[in-house]
């Protein structure tokens, strides 16, 4: 009895492209179970041609054939969630209340898998279900029907996600590459321009490829449109999934508590069109042209040709 019926919206986005921001705008919606942090569901067993480019924790997982459900749960990296639950004082989210015992979640996960059997789809269904079973101070509306997760760059695995979970959708968020790279430069150890733009283009390639193959289940949304009108942009998307719009879509939040800025969930502090453009203009003229040259094939497809 394999559990493949999990109604899931899995968000993906290249770094600094607004995935965390969109995740926080969806938080608080009365019909959604929104995962509290990045749902880093990958395992160390993920090995393919993209492993050298993207961290395993951000990928759709691979599980050992001989493993037990207990071993599967431990294999799921989920760094942000497990650190906050197990060692809250070293978590960057330690200032937010979060009543979840990870050992209890593990037992609940194993209980789900014992009933359904092991498979990648069943394991992922159990992971999301167990999280909200164990999260004691999650603010419930009583109308929740769909789970929402977010992991950077997981769009590259979109075909696996929709194949494993027939009721799943993948929502890819894209941001213009100039603002995105300018924010990347603010990291302590930033990616080079060449490395960043290669990874950005790989994300857009997979997003557009899988959207063409699965038009009803893979969706591409620009963060610029979310910033300009989150209620309408995200409300239209939720409408395609049979869900309603809600006033909560207007502001980013965490467990229903309004956030003045998305940081530390993401690097975009002010999710406004003006701040987004100002960020792009932080790049030098030479950097702007180099970003344009390296991302050119996708600028027209994503309506960024005249952004800067």
Give keywords.
five-stranded parallel β-sheet; single chain; alpha/beta; 308 residues
Task: Tell me about this structure.
This protein is α/β, with parallel strands linked by helices and 308 residues long. It has one domain: 3-Layer(aba) Sandwich (Rossmann fold), CATH 3.40.50.300. It has 12 helices and 7 strands. The chain has helices spanning 19-26, 69-75, 79-86, 102-116, 120-134, 158-164, 177-184, 193-213, 223-228, 230-240, 273-280, 285-299; strands at residues 8-13, 32-34, 146-150, 169-174, 218-222, 253-254, 257-258. It has a 5-stranded parallel β-sheet with strand order 2-3-1-4-5, sandwiched between helices. Strand 6 and strand 7 (257-258) form a beta hairpin. Helix 4 (102-116) crosses helix 5 and helix 8 (193-213) runs parallel beside helix 12. The longest helix has 21 residues, at 193-213. The radius of gyration is 19 Å and the shape is globular. It starts with 7 loop residues before the first strand and ends in a 9-residue tail after the last helix.
List the helices and strands and how they pair.
Elements: E1 8-13, H1 19-26, E2 32-34, H2 69-75, H3 79-86, H4 102-116, H5 120-134, E3 146-150, H6 158-164, E4 169-174, H7 177-184, H8 193-213, E5 218-222, H9 223-228, H10 230-240, E6 253-254, E7 257-258, H11 273-280, H12 285-299
Parallel strand pairs: 1-3, 1-4, 2-3, 4-5
Antiparallel strand pairs: 6-7
Q: CATH superfamily assignment?
A: P-loop containing nucleotide triphosphate hydrolases
The percent range for strand residues is 5-15%
> What is the residue-averaged pLDDT?
95
Give the assembly state of these chains: single chain
CATH top level assignment: Alpha Beta
The tally of helices reads 12
User: Judging from the principal axes of the Cα atoms, what is the shape?
Assistant: globular
